[in-house]
Write a structure and sequence with these properties.
12% helix, three-stranded antiparallel sheet, Immunoglobulin-like, six-stranded mixed sheet, mainly beta, 35% strand
Amino acid sequence: MYKKIILISFLMVCLMSTAIARTPSTDNASVYIISPSHGEMVVNPVTVRFGLKGMGVAPAGTDKAKTGHHHLLIDTKLKSMDDAIPKDKKHMHFGGGQTETTLKLSPGRHTLQLMLGDMKHVPHNSPVMSQQITIFVE
């Protein structure tokens, strides 16, 4: 029994030590979608322009305070603020410091949301994320 308690304690310490530390954001930081606007009817290709206040944009891997890079969430919400943002069709990474993108979306309703990630693609502490907007593709 004693060996099991030691083993469980050791495993818990190991798991806690592998958690990703979150980079602090600034108090006044905000990220927003410049265009398109919430509720807008658009045609393909859709250009999405990113805005950021209170922090700077830096490529992924750049260890510089008060910076991050954009991630665009398409038709999804982020499941965890403590892990790296996934990279797939619904979670687009702009690790080169890009401030806009052009998308081809299927016709219909879509949601878009920006999230600023740190050098390791982890949301800042406190998260810097835009309001989720809805657009309609013809």
